[in-house]
Design brief:
Largest sheet: 6 strands, mixed
Shape: flat
Order of helices and strands: HHHHHHHHEEEHEHEHE
Oligomer: single chain
Number of strands: 6
Strand content: 5-15%
Distance between the termini: 50 Å
Length: about 280
């Protein structure tokens, strides 16, 4: 089936679905079309059948308002050259080069080339480096390093393999008669989604380190996997001076320690986002 035939089939499917459901709005929502498109397709089909739909599919888009090719190339090149720049700054820089384009026009070009966010522009930069082997400028290096630092500050990094990073947090469970307050230490492998949990009657650096020593590190050792990093919030059970028990344990085990920004809990973006946990 050709791409054109697939398009025609989708339009015919929209008309048929609306007929079966007896509801144009619901059919459009399910098929991803607007109501205006539905009625336009229906009118064409009623007048000329599938042939009319084929003719509209062959129409070429109107490009009279499209950005000139040389300006579009310049926008894309500048997006990679200066990935940290916003659309206003890009527009002003190109105007100084004699290329007239508005900030909105810059954004339209970005949208066509999947460059709308700095994350996407940095991804395009990395792809160009890998493909062409270009040397990075100071501005490009600074943008990459800042993005990396920001990601780590928010815990937003790509886990590359099991053991690459474990996310740890403390949860207040409640109060038990005869015991008092009960806290749960939870650790989850951000790549493999393997989880460990243990209850304690206190919230201290010792208990934060104890679950690693008792459950987590032995598990990784058993499977010949190195635990490289732990990610936590900045709670007192996880962060402190050089004599801090949790920090000392990580240093002894040669495990790096990353912290979320401010008091943002590790579980906010990581632990609660995982659909299924295997508890050790």
């Amino acid at each position: 089936m050709t791409p054109e035939q697939k398009i025609i089939r989708a339009k015919l499917g929209l008309l048929e679905l609306a007929k079966q459901l007896g509801n144009v709005s619901q059919a459009c929502k399910m098929m991803g079309y607007s109501r205006d498109s539905f009625y336009r397709f229906k009118e064409l089909y009623d007048k000329g059948g599938e042939l009319a739909l084929q003719e509209i599919s062959r129409r070429k888009p109107v490009l009279k308002n499209r950005t000139a090719p040389q300006i579009e190339r310049a926008v894309v090149e500048l997006a990679i050259e200066q990935p940290a720049w916003g659309q206003v700054r890009v527009s002003e820089a190109l105007k100084r080069q004699g290329l007239s384009i508005s900030p909105a026009g810059v954004r339209c070009v970005w949208q066509r080339h999947d460059l709308t966010s700095i994350k996407h522009r940095l991804k395009a930069l990395e792809a160009k480096v890998a493909q062409d082997g270009i040397l990075l400028t100071e501005a490009q290096i600074a943008a990459l390093e800042k993005a990396k630092a920001d990601k780590e500050a928010h815990g937003e990094f790509e886990s590359e393999c099991p053991g690459y990073c474990g996310a740890q947090d403390t949860f207040y469970v409640g109060t038990l008669k005869g015991v008092g307050r009960v806290y749960q230490q939870t650790v989850i492998d951000t790549y493999a989604k393997v989880a460990f949990a243990k209850l304690y009657d206190r919230k201290t650096p010792i208990t934060a380190a104890e679950i690693l020593n008792d459950r987590v590190v032995p598990f990784y050792d058993e499977h010949a996997i190195r635990l490289s990093r732990m990610l936590t919030d900045r709670g007192t059970e996880f962060c402190g001076t050089q004599s801090h028990e949790y920090e000392l344990y990580l240093a002894v085990e040669d495990i790096d320690h990353s912290r979320t920004k401010d008091q943002e809990p590790a579980n906010k973006w990581n632990l609660r986002a995982l659909p299924s946990h295997r508890f050790g």
